[in-house]
Amino acid sequence: MSVPADLKYADSHEWARLEADGTVSVGITDHAQDRLGDLVFVEAPKLGQTVAKGKECGVVESVKAAADLYAPISGEVVAVNEALSGSPEKVNQDAYAAWMFRVRPSDPAELNALLDAAAYEKVVASEEH
Amino acid sequence: MPFIPHTDDDVRAMLASIGVQRTESLFDEIPQALREARLTAVPPQLGEMDVMRLMQQRAEQDGRWLNFLGAGAYEHHIPAAVWQIVTRGEFYSAYTPYQAEASQGTLQVLYEYQSMMASLTGLDATNASLYDGASALAEAILMAVRLHKSSHRVLVPATVHPTYVKVARTIVSSQDIELIELPYCTEQGTTLPESLQRFGEKPFAALVIPQPNFFGALEQVHALTDWAQAHAALVIGVVNPVALALLAPPGRWGQRGADIAVGEGQPLGVPLANGGPYFGFLACKQAHVRQMPGRIVGRTVDLDGRPGFTLTLQAREQHIRRSKATSNICTNQGLAVTAATIHMALLGPQGLRRVAQACHANLRALLGRLETEAGVRRRFAAPVFHEAVIALGAPAAPILERMRDQRVLGGLDPGADYPELADSLLVCATETKTAADLGRYLEAFTAARHAG
pTM for the full model? Predict the structure, then answer.
């Protein structure tokens, strides 16, 4: 299981990456894609939609389950990865390249409150038990 | 399904194994007072012979009517082969099968049904049916609000079947969805697109368009669809499946087509039977399919590459999505749908079109005779399919009652739902009526009017 050290994580299994332009990219973790299995559908929030940290903002659906997508950070959705609508398998192939949407954070400090790689690995380990 | 009775020994063994002395102890949770309540409205049990006699009496009471009543449930000729095939044991269930390995025949029938309904509505996908037309409208409204995401307002013309609106209101009101009634034009009997401006000032999630509407009249579906979609709202068509054989299918309404189409499937091979069971259909564009309620059957291949059928897109459904499922509807009307599939297969597109044409011709003939022989004219000017409102100039109820004395169901008194139409009558003629039937209607109608 891959948990890149340069990303932030939510205990609901999303990752967040601060981009150079100040926006934050969001996707689901390698662990999440592995547990869900082959993804068949990604429903990201709409462009321009306001999302709130910890609140549902979309759905990922696999051949065996459907899971809600929670926003790891609050703000306005400024980009949606359209490539995933036709090829959700990209999430299975590389969960950290397959960003789902980008947020312009209303409170950038929220990013610091997210888990770092080590803390997220502990969350995953505790769930395995 | 076999009925397996328990012997006294069985019962004793079962009680012993759970450590209970008497069967009555299993009901200790229920207060004594309730357990001893007498159900006074429930008659005593009857023997088989008595039941036969009772049902014969009831059947005689039902009588044999010459029926010109429509208003949502329509009398059509059903080829005898339809129910002969439906009542085969292999089909005899209301349920959609989970187990693809044991249910290929039923799944294929449902797949064929979905294909036919998609073709009839001009839309990409349909589910395996819902309870009835009214609850299908409610599901479509819920679906549209989920898809729209930002508005909970839905515009519903006053020309939508009043019962559908009541059912939809009951189902959607607890989800904070507001149904806003649109007025109709009292000359045309339809919803005028140019009158809607003020309703578009605030955002709305969807516009419902009935075709034909409750008055049997044809709405301006293209202009209404374009108007709603220009306001970033979805369009829900409520359609009569027989009429679709002649009219533009919802998928081709306006520039972009309706988003969702629903309706009552009863006219497709399901007999009138004291209100049901009927079935509802729901079709939508491919882009909306993940918000569709109900079961969907898909065509696939098995491990050896052979074609087969299975339930698909199940992540929408309650056994996977739990409380966030698109709907709690998981049962459908499998048997009625099987009848509809066989009915449509026997008629074919040409046959269904001939039925629709015959309905329309019969209504026109009836309206013509009402005008020339009884001096009664249509209440509204808009074109109609197989049903129309006629202006009586006197209350409908007593006239209908006197027609019933002559074994003729003369139509529906719309006054209860539309007080302004208390002196009118909603009358329907399907392909089942002959020229002699129309003559009998005129006779009964004229006598009933003059007796007052």
Answer: 0.87
